[in-house]
Amino acid sequence: MFQLFNYTTLSTRLEKSTRSLYITLNRPDRGNALHQEMLFELESLLAWCTSRVEINSIFIDSCTNTFSPGVEAAALPHMNAQQIEKLSTRLHKIIFSMMQMPQTVLIDLGDGAANWAMELALGADIRICSVNAELKFDHARLGLVPAAGGMSFLSHLVPASFARPWLATGLAIPNEQREASGLIHRTYDSTERTDVVHTLLAAIAAQAPVQRIQTKLGLFEAHRHQIETALVADLKIAKASRISEDWKTRQTEQAETETFMPAKSLSYSVKLSLIKSAPTQTETEH
User: Fold this and answer.
1) What is the CATH number that goes with domain 2-238?
2) Reported pTM
């Protein structure tokens, strides 16, 4: 293996035997939480990959046992609605591009992932994790909604009978549901991880490249319209939810009082935001 690029938040290397690009989230001081720079680097790297059809597969993992906690919770109170939207939109673009890339994308969620990191994994063709992994779509606990595919694409990947309670509670997905739902392709223990990863990447490399690429694109095209329509709806819902600015609250499991915006206040807040956004008479005259 050898290093390909010099990124700040990512480590990259190429495995010649399987023609696999390894991408490792490398921000250990923040637990590999997703932020603007990491998403920018990941987006640019994946854009580079789109024309490198000689690369068979992309393997994404992290430098820590846990893949990523998702959004950097400590930074949320200091972010405004525009910044949240910018991050969410970039994440959405990355996920959507992963579905259409010529490479087969494999993500290892390790010992766990949450909110935005779980949404990132939805763009992969194959997802694996440790037998002890804690996986959760806990966006609402942070005052966010899963707008990058956690509503639309998740319900496309797994039956609604699984997706609904995962999103409704934000609790860790029960172990027996991970593979049964189709969310996870394979779980492993620490002694077999290397073998599992190599077996999957070798199997991908053994396929005829043209047929492998066309099969992936065919699977995507069969559901493109449904996915695109649903993702547009996700973005509209996310925009409405940002009116509350609940992500600035940073709720914790130990919180004793409810500090999120009450649901009954939403309609008033929407009307108020519309009034603030409406052009004044002077503006309309110009």
Assistant:
1) 3.90.226.10
2) 0.86
